[in-house]
Design a protein that fits this description.
three-stranded antiparallel β-sheet, hpI Integrase, Chain A, elongated, about 400 residues, 8 strands, 3 domains, mainly alpha
Length: about 400
């Protein structure tokens, strides 16, 4: 660890003579380019001050007393500097001077800084951040708090005590006790990393605990319904009203690619006539704020018409009667059973189905699909571009005929 360089200078302020004719003695600290000064609450006859040696001259008792006091201060400064160094505290002129004066810098806890960040983020939701981003950071803070309570018996674990070991133990906690999958755990650790960056930027800590830690993600297959499974959901006659409604909402997602949050906030104002004369959903993604547009196909149009007089639509001003995400995913499990599907139906799977079975499998270009999904990077869309077995068979059959 690089040690902070510092210099101690004692001087008098000739421009501020006291009534008794003496001048006040000051101390200036210079630490790694930062400076700070204070009065040491002593004064001296101007004729007794040595400007070259920065101390009292001659052998009067006053000069001896002053010089002994200066030596005592110098020793205290060196002692405080060493203690701060050993405790990993940020050392600059201000913090060292505060330590000498007994003025304690605020000792932040990790959870406290996390909470302050989340409160500030909440004020910017809708302008710079989405509700989902705030929700992710709140979940991250909750995990950190529970981890500190579990591992250190103190939810207010000091920020300066966060090191690489802390991060590795937190990862293990997320994967074991919190039962998070690898990529979910990494999202919480990314949130923690942002809080650490804030701490470093504000000089609450000096050493970056993430220096020897690498955040990794594992590529996972995005499961989707194939054409046969999608048709099974479409054609199944469902008599239970709540399941029938959720099935329709799921299909609406399958043919529009809307994420749950965008589906739940959809209004009639989001439907506009495109340059082709047909209806389009034109909206900004709640997650990223990126604009997207997607055509309303016949099946989606039928679903809109089916629920236009639904009490929740009439009363709430939304386009469709969308329940909470938790309820919707719970009901979709029942829909899967009713439709005889082994796959777990979720709102995420519906978006994946749009990306693969409805678009990419029907030769829609990757760039177009990326725009329809509202992705900011083409690499995000490429995750969906796994080659479907049916598509592979069709392509090879076409090539076989071409080659004779």
């Amino acid at each position: 660890m690089k040690r902070a360089t510092f210099n101690i200078l004692f001087f008098v302020k000739w421009s501020r003579p006291l009534r008794n004719g003496e001048v006040p003695v000051y101390m200036r600290l210079t630490v790694s380019g930062t400076t700070s000064e204070i009065s040491i609450k002593r004064s001296i006859d101007p004729n007794l001050w040595d400007t070259k040696r920065n101390k009292a001259k001659r052998h009067s008792q006053q000069a001896k007393d002053i010089n002994e006091y200066l030596d005592s201060i110098r020793g205290q400064i060196y002692s405080h500097q060493q203690n701060m160094q050993e405790n990993g505290k940020v050392i600059n002129a201000k913090t060292l001077l505060n330590e000498f004066q007994g003025i304690g810098e605020k000792e932040w806890s990790l959870v406290e800084l996390f909470e302050q960040h989340n409160q500030e983020m909440e004020k910017l939701v809708g302008t710079e951040y989405s509700p989902l981003t705030l929700q992710r950071f709140k979940a991250g803070k909750k995990h950190v708090e529970e981890f500190c309570e579990s591992n250190y018996k103190n939810k207010n674990h000091p920020l300066r005590s966060v090191d690489t070991r802390f991060i590795k133990e937190f990862e293990f906690y997320l994967k074991s006790t919190a039962n998070c999958q690898h990529n979910s755990a990494m999202k919480h650790i990314k949130a923690l990393k942002k809080i650490i960056r804030i701490a470093i930027a504000n000089e609450f800590i000096r050493k970056d605990p993430f220096f020897n830690y690498k955040i990794t993600t594992k590529q996972v297959d995005r499961e989707a319904l194939n054409e046969a499974e999608l048709q099974a959901v479409i054609k199944k006659d469902i008599e239970i009203e709540r399941l029938d409604t959720v099935r329709d909402l799921f299909l609406f997602q399958c043919y529009t690619g809307l994420a749950y949050i965008d589906l739940s906030t959809l209004t009639r104002d989001d439907i506009q006539i495109g340059i082709d004369g047909n209806k389009w959903i034109i909206k900004k993604r709640s997650k990223t704020g990126i604009s997207f547009r997607v055509p309303i196909f016949a099946i989606a149009e039928r679903i809109i018409k089916k629920y236009k007089n639904h009490p929740l639509v009439q009363k709430g001003g939304k386009l469709l009667p969308v329940p909470s995400n938790q309820k919707m995913n719970a009901y979709l499990k029942e829909v899967a059973v009713v439709c005889g599907l082994r796959k777990t139906l979720t709102t995420h799977l519906a978006r994946h189905t749009f990306a693969t079975t409805v678009t990419l499998a029907n030769n829609i270009p990757m760039e177009t699909v990326s725009k329809l999904l509202g992705h900011t990077k083409i690499q995000t869309t490429q995750i969906y571009a796994k080659v479907l077995e049916t598509k592979l068979s069709d392509d090879m059959e076409a090539l076989r005929k071409k080659l004779g």
